[in-house]
Design a protein that fits this description.
Number of strands: 6
Distance between the termini: 91 Å
Mean pLDDT: 85
Shape: elongated
Strand content: 35-45%
Number of helices: 1
Structural class: alpha+beta
Largest sheet: 6 strands, antiparallel
Length: about 170
C-alpha cells in the first residue's frame, strides 16, 4: 500500500514551499516599492513646507499695518529668523519684490517673488484696485549635497480672482 504513494509528500512539500516563496517575494516587492515612495515623500514635504514658509513671510510683510508693497527701492525685513534685503524691481506697471534665498534650519530653502499692481483689468469686466501675487519656490536640499532634490511651488493671490498673468 505504501508503494503507490511514492513522492506524494515530496510533491506537497514542494508546492507549499513554492506558494510560501511566491507570497514572500510579493510582500518584499510591495515593501521595497513603498520604501522607495516614502523616500520621495519626505523631500517633497520639506520642499512644500519651505514654500509655505516663504508665502507666510511675504504675506506677513504684505500686511497694511507695516506696508502694502508700495516701496520703490530695496529694503530690509526680518524673516525666518534672519535679516533679509528685499530687492525691488519695476516691471512695466508691476512692482516686483524678490526675497533672496532664505535658508531654513532643516537644510531646505525658499525663493520668493511678490508682484503688486494697481488697477488690474478684470476679465469679467471692471478692474481690481490692487492685486498682490506671491510666488514661492521651496527646495528640500540647498546644501549642494547628494540625494533626492525636490522643488515645490505655491502661488498666493489677493484677491483670488486676480488674473495669473499680471
Amino acid at each position: 500500500m505504501y508503494y503507490h504513494n511514492k513522492g506524494t509528500a515530496l510533491f506537497i512539500t514542494g508546492v507549499i514551499i513554492s506558494i510560501a516563496l511566491a507570497v514572500g517575494i510579493g510582500v518584499s516587492t510591495i515593501s521595497f516599492r513603498e520604501l522607495r515612495i516614502t523616500r520621495t515623500i519626505l523631500p517633497s514635504y520639506q520642499a512644500f513646507y519651505a514654500a509655505d514658509a516663504g508665502v507666510e513671510c511675504a504675506f506677513y510683510w504684505a500686511n497694511p499695518a507695516r506696508f502694502q508693497y508700495d516701496q520703490t527701492s530695496n529694503f530690509s525685513i526680518t524673516c525666518l529668523g534672519a535679516s533679509r534685503t528685499v530687492v525691488y524691481r519695476h516691471d512695466g506697471p508691476t512692482r516686483v519684490y524678490m526675497f533672496p534665498q532664505m535658508n531654513l534650519n532643516n537644510g531646505s530653502c525658499v525663493n520668493v517673488a511678490v508682484r503688486a499692481r494697481e488697477n488690474v483689468p478684470n476679465p469679467l469686466g471692471g478692474s481690481f484696485s490692487q492685486c498682490l501675487r506671491i510666488d514661492s519656490f521651496g527646495k528640500n536640499d540647498c546644501s549642494g549635497g547628494g540625494g533626492v532634490k525636490v522643488e515645490r511651488g505655491l502661488l498666493w493671490k489677493d484677491p483670488v480672482a486676480c488674473p495669473d498673468d499680471f
